[in-house]
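User: Once you have settled down, look closely at the record that follows, taking as long as you need, and be ready to discuss the fold:
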Amino acid sequence: MTFDAKHSVTEGLDHLSTRLDPIIAAKLSEQLGGLPWTAVLVQLDQIAGKPPITYATTDLQPQLKMLTQKLGQLGFPFDDHRRTASTLGSELRIVRNSWAHGDPFSSLDAWRAHDYCVRLLEYFSDGEGLVKANELRHQAVLAYVQEQGIAPVPAALGPVDAEAPDGGQTEEPASDEPEDEVITPDPDVFTREHTSGRSVVGEQRLAFEPWEPVLAGDIQVLNDLPKVAAKQKVRAVATEIVEAEGPVHVDRLAQLIAASFGVGRLHASRASKIRNQIKATGLFIDKAKFVWPEGVDPESWTEFRPNTSEVDRPFLFISPVEIANAMSFLKRRKPGLSGAELDSATLRTFGRKRRTQQVAAHLAKAKALL
């Protein structure tokens, strides 16, 4: 019988979803007080200013969100010190995204997907669930071996050397803050003005959580652009990053995508190819070149995400809309702030202190939106 990689992945993801639902519910039973665990995601969306979504406990997408997102005051309840659950969950989110968009899968893709499932169920000590997961992984590796005419089991991909620039690399704006000085936001900026009563995740504003790159493939995927299979893999990664970080500048997004395929620095031609795939996702890109998550309207979004100077997010890569939202909040809390004081408070909210010429210009863009 011919091995059907797409069907195999579907079977593996469906199996995983049946195993994760009770695992998540059991872990949070004490905190939930009888609520379904999907209430956590609903409350997080409310705090982040996202439109309401109905989540199903048996749906793999919200299950993986629970494993990979910081759950407010609950933190990362499923993780160990190595962030095993969130790393494997992020890899599986990319697989699930590709699957949902109807992308083709090779036998090697299927093996990787099943390997993530096996490792995640091993982490949760789900012996019963591992029986079928291991069987599916074994079927995929046998198909790969037969296709390639080789004997060894395929190894998981590891990072490749950073790509050498060829004259036009894309780089994030470097921080000009002193390395030995940690700048933290005023605790007041984490206070939300509108609360919704009892909350499992707390009522504080959510801090910015940078995307942690996970290897979604090797550099050959980027080399193969614009072939169909390569395009689909890149778009799947782009969508997941925007869901996690959006609004995110298109250049930062391109760099994070490249890192997901083992490339540390981008040259101009490769960056251009990746940006073309970002546009092809259909996600909204505003005039300032920030990419927005699906369902989030820049015109009505009023949230912002504070961060310390230790967080990887250069000030110039923060959306003027988000900065303007922070300014509006600060002005409401302290109406008497002068222009210079407002600038300083805004910069501190995002882990910055120095007001360079570029920073001043970026602040001006935000003020124009007030």
Residues 151-169 have pLDDT under 50 and may be disordered.
